[in-house]
Amino acid sequence: MTGKIQFFSFQALCLLTILQVHATVFSVAVSGNDANPGTQTSPWRTVQKAASTLVAGDTVLIRGGVYHEQVVVQNSGTKSQYITFKDYPGETPIIDGSGISPLTSNAVFATNEQSFLRISGLKVQNSDYFGIGNWGAWGATSKPGYIVVERCTTFNTVGSGIAFSNHTNITIDGNKVEQATTGASGTQENISVHGVDTFEIKNNHVSDGPTQTIGAEGIDAKGGSKWGTIHHNIVDNNKLCMYVDAWDGTNSEIDIYNNIFRNCGRGIVLASENGGRLENIRIFNNLVYNSKMEGLLMTNWVGVAGSHYMSGIHIINNTFFNNGSTDAWAPSLSISNPEAINVVIRNNIVSSPQYGGVIAGTLSVSQMTIENNLFQGVIKNGMGGVGSVTTAPLFQSSASGDFHLTVRSPAINTGTTQSAPIFDFDNAQRPSGSAIDMGAYEYREAQTQVRVPRPRAATTSTGNLSIPLRDLLGRAVP
């Protein structure tokens, strides 16, 4: 009898646990009514009705059509039960902010200080400021976060397409951001994280931003953001492709890798404009080409007068091509911040119509390590470093954006293994020959290619993320 009592008690406990897990799937459609129960056969009319109703574990499937409204999320999920806003399979819901101003929390789809959210497959357009996100309150005792924005599209936003400030654990994955920051100067950046700790920006396509004086960068990690990865993105046709600016905080432990930055005013810019600190920024396996000005610039641009400290900047195994294409005075690599220390420039290919080397301004050689790079173009200030090759890299087809090495490339087996990434732009293992190759691609014949899994964050079915930060040798960073 005791065994039976224990068995039934266990059953009752399981049933109670199941009843306590709240997980309901609701529906929204343009033909619906907010007085309905929100089922598939009797859906709600507005996405806001869902945003006001859903609690931890709930999902809303949004049918295709145009919803002219702002959405302000009212509740948070939990670590094990995210709240999910998702497109109905095969359909495209469009949230249109035309004429809605001012916007609560600055976004057409505003996460509104809530946490544990997943926003998936929506199109947000015509915003008076941001498309998706939340500009969080500074000085709060705790940060909202654990938010995933995936497979979304933003279009024609006066400010950022996607932006989060003062948050934690933000993932921005597989989105398309077009024509963002169309307003006056200072309307932030196309994708922006400001004061965010633990973030991942990956697999996004950011394009066709304006060329205003302030703001409008493609992707920006700024204002004390740290412990992040930015990888496998494409950014093109923007004023500046990639910006990392500490501003008045400490930006640190950020890996930028396996991205394509092309056809922008500048490729990658590192700054500390307002007395902040930029530390341990690792840039590797990127393709940076056809920039009008510098391919990479480390600058002492002044937002407000003060220090512009930088340390531990590693620029390794990137391919820079045809940067400075419209400015005869712009080098491919420019290190113009005299406060930068511990700068490493190694295993890169730098091919430029103007300056193929490193222009280091007032930096001394003791502040930098420059070694085993291929430079095609003029090398200024004696900054070619050691172990350098000065000749054409012999790409497969630079005209079509194919920067794989040909069999006779002088970049093959001429790099160094020191701090080199363990995978290349194709996510294939390094080295494939007797030594590391220079540039973003490791040369290999097709029949001997060995693939390794693309580095990705671990996920669970709830969307709870654990983002693994790794150094250039593939070792986990605590």
How would you summarize the topology of this molecule?
Layout: H1 2-20, E1 25-28, H2 47-53, E2 59-62, E3 65-68, E4 71-72, E5 83-87, E6 93-96, E7 107-110, E8 117-120, E9 123-127, E10 130-135, E11 145-150, E12 153-157, E13 162-165, E14 168-173, E15 176-178, E16 191-194, E17 197-202, E18 205-207, E19 217-222, E20 226-231, E21 234-236, E22 240-245, E23 250-257, E24 260-262, E25 266-271, E26 277-284, E27 287-289, E28 296-298, E29 309-316, E30 319-321, E31 333-335, E32 340-346, E33 349-355, E34 358-359, E35 368-371, E36 374-378, E37 395-397, E38 402-405
Parallel strand pairs: 1-2, 2-5, 3-6, 4-7, 5-8, 6-9, 7-10, 8-11, 9-12, 10-13, 11-14, 12-15, 13-16, 14-17, 15-18, 16-19, 17-20, 18-21, 19-22, 20-23, 21-24, 22-25, 23-26, 24-27, 25-28, 26-29, 27-30, 28-31, 29-32, 30-33, 31-34, 32-35, 33-36
Antiparallel strand pairs: 37-38
In short:
With 478 residues, the protein is mainly beta.
Give the helix proportion (percent range). Answer: under 10%
Number of domains: 1
Unreliable stretches = 1-20, 447-478
| Largest beta sheet: strand ordering | 1-2-5-8-11-14-17-20-23-26-29-32-35
Most strands sheet? 13 strands, parallel
User: What structural class should be given to the helix and strand makeup?
Assistant: mainly beta
- The CATH top-level class label: Mainly Beta
The CATH homologous superfamily is termed Single-stranded right-handed beta-helix, Pectin lyase-like
